[in-house]
Design a protein that fits this description.
4-stranded antiparallel beta sheet, mainly beta, single chain, 7-stranded mixed beta sheet, globular
């Protein structure tokens, strides 16, 4: 089994920064795709950023230049969020997946609220 636990959410003013963390545990050695998604109230879940084995990253246009996804040697994945806007308000979810298989895992989410 795989467990993903997010942390780091909170309330921040527009223009502020937050860093989200996603700690992975369990049978994670073959997970080669990690990503962040978010879901705003009344909306569907939206992809935010991806990092794959080898370190290649991709970003949604709405966050490009403001958010950075990274990973450390202990398989914790981070989402550094700068220049936050009210429209970034959402529950942020971490996903881990073994590409080419049905093995995909989600964390429980962490709330990010951007408001003055």
């Amino acid at each position: 089994q795989v467990q993903l636990v997010e942390s780091g959410g909170g309330l921040v003013q527009p223009g502020g920064s937050l860093r989200l963390s996603c700690v992975a545990s369990g049978s994670i050695s073959d997970i080669n795709f990690r990503a962040w998604y978010r879901q705003a109230p009344g909306k569907g879940r939206e992809w935010v950023a991806t990092i794959i084995t080898g370190g290649s990253t991709t970003y949604a246009d709405s966050v490009k230049g403001r958010f950075t996804i990274s990973r450390d040697a202990k398989n914790t994945v981070y989402l550094q969020m700068n220049g936050l806007k009210p429209e970034d308000t959402a529950v942020y979810y971490c996903k881990g997946q073994v590409l080419g298989t049905m093995r995909a895992y989600w964390g429980q989410g962490t709330q990010v609220t951007v408001s003055s």
